[in-house]
Automatic annotation (TrEMBL):
The keyword Transport does not apply. Pfam families: DEAD, Helicase_C, RecG_dom3_C, RecG_wedge. Signal peptide: none annotated. The keyword Endoplasmic reticulum does not apply. This is ATP-dependent DNA helicase RecG. NCBIfam families: PRK10917.1-3 (NF008165), PRK10917.2-2 (NF008168), recG (TIGR00643). Residues 445-605 form the Helicase C-terminal domain. Belongs to the helicase family. RecG subfamily. It is an enzyme of class 5 (isomerase).
Length: 671
């Protein structure tokens, strides 16, 4: 027998039972070895005085009352008896398991596994143990038609086959010595049937390191290959002209902005293909850094393109680039433009008279031909797929790529989700910006808030109202927004114009409403969450979010970032009556900090990486044993050591690392 033999080859298992295991992705004997339990039941008997309320535990005692079965209703019954442990007498109940009565003998020693209820001094039984079993019993994820017992039986059969000794070591000896790791065979055995907790912890440490190390080896090797691509552009920009432009800015760059700009410029000049993510909180000044990178490309005689998700954002960026570089020819390209204007822009892009181009998806249409494209910047990177980036690469001579996002991604996830990219982070706010004051109020206090808003409107300010979010129900979202709009129209009457925007509207309708709000034709804008990331309305100073506890922290922070864009003091009001602790924690976190990175870390702790990114589409793998949040220290160490190995250009020829290459090839990661 071999590790790759089907489960049916094991003693006591036929093709039918092996078929069931396929539901869990278990096909071979090796698969059984590597299918780890997700937790353990501790079957070590405990004293009644050690137990916490609600704890699951094993209690051993002498049976002091006979078993009594009471029937109530169809197929419903309760078996009850008492055991004595020292001086303590404990009531034990089993529901709908009358057949256990035969095992309860007066005067016998009995071990019961169950849930402790301190108030009643009672144990709700789950299992009668004839004698106290092994201290730790594995619990596996199972599927319909597969019981824990059947899975444990199969795994035990795999161990009995003696094939564990054929399981190859997957980590280099040097790393095992450095981190004092168990061998792979020892770790696999201890993951399923540990001698004690200490041995299990060592096994878990080894398994987690192995998973995270190979994940990082993949990313680091990919990154190194990108770096070594000699087909990248060498953008020989004019440093003097660029520094003159930086000096002429109406504000000094923050240290974080300067650092990010230097990292981007170094990539552009390097000759390796740039693949960088520029991360910065709302209002941290990412756009000016992107603009300076575009200017650097211009001084090297190259065109640059900035692609954004919506027409209103494209117009906004077009305006700011035109103001920043009045002597350059900046073109706007969107699907909503008049045909003649569009044609003129496309001619200028093709003949090279246009220096910078801003637009939506129109930038990658077949009809658009670039003269000499050297730099591509995409804003809000998660909206653009890999295919669109590939089209851009083909339109120019493999231009450098910079992505920008205003969604603060915790460092924990940035090195994971964007591991093959270099990440620049602007984690400082420009001097002189007034922090947004955030308040959390209950629904009962809404009248007071509306009265205060009257005062803000009198100061010529504008207000956003975000209508509550109903999960997966656009119809309900719309209904709520319409109702809220009507309430505000009734409340403010002639003193303010209240506009309404929602997801069912066409893009040009939404753009028109947003432009009217920007031009102060309306004072209050009621919206579902469709209000666009990045849209700049400097005069809007109040953001009211209804039922704020229905939003995640990252979303709340994004919405709050719609205000605070001018020089007036801005406010975010969270209206919420949270029903649980998580909701309350979210509200408190929002009031306590305006730092998006701090909030993103909090969000990660509360929700987990899968919920923030949607694990499947984000490219973040689901690990068997490792957890990106809990095991961040191991992830960092794995990243560091993988980076050190890959930094040596000849690492693939080094005899120490042959086991890594063999493992990567086996997984299909290296051709």
């Amino acid at each position: 027998m071999k590790l790759q033999d089907p489960i049916a080859a094991l003693k006591g298992f036929g093709p039918k039972s092996a078929e069931k295991f396929a539901k869990l992705g278990l096909f071979t004997i090796e698969d059984l070895f590597l299918y780890f339990p997700f937790r353990y039941e501790d079957f070590k008997s405990k004293s009644v005085f050690e137990l916490m309320d609600g704890e699951k535990a094993v209690m051993t005692g002498t049976v002091v009352t006979p078993a009594n079965v009471q029937y109530y209703g169809f197929k419903r019954n309760r078996l009850s008896f008492k055991i004595k442990q020292g001086e303590a007498v404990i009531a034990v109940s089993f529901f709908n398991q009358p057949y256990l009565a035969d095992k309860i003998e007066l005067g016998s020693e009995l071990a019961v596994f169950g849930k402790w209820e301190a108030a009643k001094s009672a144990l709700t039984g789950m299992k009668v143990l004839a004698q106290v079993e092994d201290d730790m019993q594995p619990v596996y994820h199972v599927a319909q038609g597969i019981s824990q017992a059947a899975l444990v039986k199969a795994i035990k059969a795999a161990f009995d086959s003696g094939l564990l000794s054929e399981l190859r070591e997957s980590l280099p000896q040097e790393l095992m010595d450095k981190y004092r790791l168990m061998t792979r065979q020892e770790a696999v055995a201890a993951m399923h049937f540990p001698r004690d907790l200490a041995v299990y912890k060592q096994a878990l440490r080894r398994v987690k390191f192995e998973e995270l190390f190979y994940f990082q080896m993949n990313l680091q090797a990919l990154k190194a290959e990108n770096k070594s691509e000699s087909n990248g552009l060498i953008i020989s920009y004019d440093r003097e002209k660029l520094e003159d432009k930086v000096s002429a800015l109406p504000f000094p760059l923050t240290d974080a902005q300067r650092r990010s700009l230097d990292e981007i410029l170094a990539d552009m000049a390097s000759g390796s293909h740039m693949n960088r993510l520029l991360q910065g909180d709302v209002g941290s000044g990412k756009t000016v850094i992107a603009s300076l990178a575009m200017y650097a490309a211009y001084t090297a005689g190259l065109q640059s393109a900035l692609m954004v998700p919506t027409e209103i954002l494209a117009e906004q960026h077009f305006q700011s680039l035109t103001e920043l570089f009045p002597d350059l020819n900046v073109a706007l390209l969107t699907s909503g433009m008049k045909a003649a204007v569009k044609r003129a822009a496309m001619t200028g892009i093709a003949d090279g008279s246009v220096d910078m181009i801003v637009g939506t998806h129109s930038l990658i249409q077949d009809a658009v031909s670039y003269h000499n494209l050297g730099l591509v910047i995409t804003d809000e990177q998660h909206r653009f797929g890999v295919n669109q980036r590939r089209v851009f690469r083909e339109k120019g001579n493999n231009p450098d790529v910079l992505m920008m996002t205003a969604t603060p991604i915790p460092r924990t996830l940035a090195i994971t989700a964007f591991g093959e990219m270099d990440v620049s982070i602007i984690d400082q706010m420009p001097a002189g910006r007034k922090p947004i004051i955030t308040r959390w109020v209950k629904h009962q206090q809404l009248d007071t808030v509306l009265n205060w808003i009257k005062g803000e409107l009198a100061k010529d300010s504008q207000v956003y109202f975000i209508s509550p979010l109903i999960e997966e129900s656009e119809a309900m979202d719309l209904k709520n927004a319409v109702a809220l709009h009507q309430e505000l129209v009734d409340y403010f009457g002639d003193s303010a114009t209240v506009a309404l925007m929602h997801g069912r509207m066409k893009n040009d309708e939404k753009d028109a409403i947003m432009q009217d709000f920007k031009k102060r034709k309306s004072q209050i804008l009621v919206s579902t969450t469709v209000i666009e990331v990045g849209v700049n309305v400097p005069n809007a100073t109040v953001m009211v979010i209804m039922d704020a506890d229905r939003f995640g922290l990252s979303q709340l922070h994004q919405l709050r970032g719609r205000v605070g864009r001018g020089d007036k003091q801005s406010y975010a009001i969270l209206v919420a009556n949270p029903k649980n602790e998580t909701g309350k924690k979210r509200m408190t976190a929002m009031v306590d900090t305006t730092d998006g990175f701090v909030l993103a870390e909090e969000d990660l702790k509360m929700r987990g990486s899968g919920e923030i990114f949607g694990t499947r589409q984000s490219g973040i793998p689901e690990f068997k044993a490792a957890d990106l949040i809990e095991d961040y220290a191991i992830l960092e160490e794995a990243r560091k050591v993988a980076g050190q190995i890959v930094a040596d250009k000849n690492w693939k020829e080094d005899s120490r690392w042959q086991v890594i290459l063999a493992n990567l090839a086996e997984k299909g990661n290296f051709d």
